[in-house]
Amino acid sequence: MSVEESELLSAEERQRRNEVIRDLLAKLDAHAPGERAHAERVAVYAVATGEAMGLSDEELLVLRYAAQLHDIGKLQIDGELLVADRPLEPLERVLLEKHVHMAEEVLPVEAFLEPSLPLIKSHHERWSGEGYPEGASGTEIPLGARIIGAAEALDVMLAGAPWRKPFPEEAAIAAMKGLGGTWFDPIVVETLLRIQPLIQPLRA
Q1: In sequence order, what are the beta bridge partners of 180?
Q2: What is the pLDDT, as a whole number, of residue 5?
Q3: DSSP assignment, residue 132?
């Protein structure tokens, strides 16, 4: 195989993977409008944070896929629940939390997605051990999942969600700083907030 052929196949594989992810996000966005834009913003925050923390190119690729698809399990959740603009009832909260496990049911059988699944499943774990689904804490949580969890929280604060109005930027930053060491890995929060001003256009 020539170098040119190898590069062509590599480009084709990259395109194929991107098409798989785009198709999944299109389905998710049709089910819960706004989820695709949220996923792409979280992916940019996450990859920039991971790069600043010294992750390898391979690790960054796994992180990008996981961040883009971190909420893909919501395809199995009632769409009305996902866009509810009210506090959820306890049973509804339990159902929503199952989306981290349902990702495995939704994702196609693709070897390139397998390394991302543990990050997807763990992105709602908390540094303090008070998250879900396993109650893992600290460095028991995969680094990529710690990054995605913080990136998602920051995006929801800045961009808003059906259940939450956007925070003013100063309030969002203050809130994230306060959650470092409790909800989130403090080093991840510090790094995320350092790179966040560089990617402000994502808020649009």
Answers
A1: 184
A2: 41
A3: S
φ and ψ at residue 178, rounded to 5 degrees: -70, -25
Q: What is the largest CA-CA distance in the chain?
A: 60
CA distances from 117 to 63, 73, 83, 120 (A): 10, 11, 25, 5
Name the one residue in this structure whose structure tokens are 């996923």.
Answer: 39
User: Which pTM does this prediction carry?
Assistant: 0.91
* Rounded-to-integer distance, Cα 148 and Cα 101, Å: 16
- How do residues 51-77 score in pLDDT, each as one tens digit? 999 999 999 999 999 999 999 999 999
Residue 80 in tokens: 């009305």
| Structure-token pair, residue 198 | 């560089």
- Kindly report the length of the chain: 204
Q: How confident is the model at residue 204 (pLDDT cuts 50, 70, 90)?
A: very low
Active site residues: 74
